[in-house]
Amino acid sequence: MLLQVAKSESVTPAGERREQWTASAARSGVRIWDHDVLPQRGVNSELRALEWLALAPAVHAPITAAAVDAMQQRSGGETAC
Question: In angstroms, rounded to a whole number, what is the distance separating the alpha carbons of residues 50 and 4?
């Protein structure tokens, strides 16, 4: 599990600015206290935060024009805006 990242910037010989992110600290596990009771989905804030990790890639993934067209066809051409 990544806990901290460091950002560095450089300029290429062509004059382009580049950013690079590298892990500067990591941890192999997470300890959640209050382990004398069974965790309940949707109630425990630590578990809810970890559930976001599974959802985040889908939320932040790029959407293609073909996917938008397919979604509009399924919804009858209506837009959400």
Answer: 16
Tokens for 48, please give them.
């809810």
CA pseudo-torsion sign 33, 37, 38, 44: negative
Instruction: Determine the Cα–Cα distance for residues 56 and 74; give it in Å rounded to an integer.
Output: 24
- Residue range 1-50, pLDDT digits in tens: 556 677 888 888 888 888 888 877 777 776 766 666 666 666 677 777 77
The DSSP secondary structure of 24-58, one letter per residue, reads EEE-S----S-TTS---TTT-HHHHHHHHHHHHHH
Alpha carbons 10 and 22: distance in angstroms, whole number: 14
